[in-house]
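Run log // design_07
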């Protein structure tokens, strides 16, 4: 009899743990993450004089940009689909890991990145890795 009660108690504990696990899966914590801080901007928020790279169905225009350290580049998505510019190497983006919006840019939106490191930074569209570009930072 005691064995049956212990078995039922174990089953009940297992069900409670399973329920709690499913709850956490379907209703995750709203603790801010890096991804929550990504902000896409509308075209009218791009300042005059900003360096803009257009994302088109055929790739990036221009393919290369030259800037000074601390300057910002804005990627404007007019490709008709989601786009995701990010540092090489594909798919890890490890050459300049901060240079990655961590999620796709919606059509009609833009993403800006300030280059605080000098160098030649090759990048690609994570969703279409054959689309490539280069930012030279002096």
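design_07 sequence
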């Amino acid at each position: 009899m005691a064995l049956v009660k212990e078995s039922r108690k174990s089953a009940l504990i297992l069900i409670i743990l399973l329920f709690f696990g499913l709850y956490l899966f379907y209703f995750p914590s709203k603790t801010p993450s890096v991804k929550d801080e990504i902000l896409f901007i509308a075209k009218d928020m791009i300042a005059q004089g900003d360096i803009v790279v257009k994302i088109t169905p055929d790739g990036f225009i221009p393919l290369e940009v030259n800037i000074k350290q601390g300057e910002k580049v804005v990627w404007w998505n007019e490709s008709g689909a989601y786009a995701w510019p990010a540092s090489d190497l594909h798919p890890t983006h490890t050459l300049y890991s901060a240079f990655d919006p961590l999620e796709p840019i919606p059509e009609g939106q833009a993403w800006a990145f300030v280059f605080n490191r000098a160098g030649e930074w090759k990048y690609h569209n994570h969703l279409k890795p054959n689309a490539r570009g280069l930012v030279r930072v002096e």
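Residues 22-37 have pLDDT under 50 and may be disordered.
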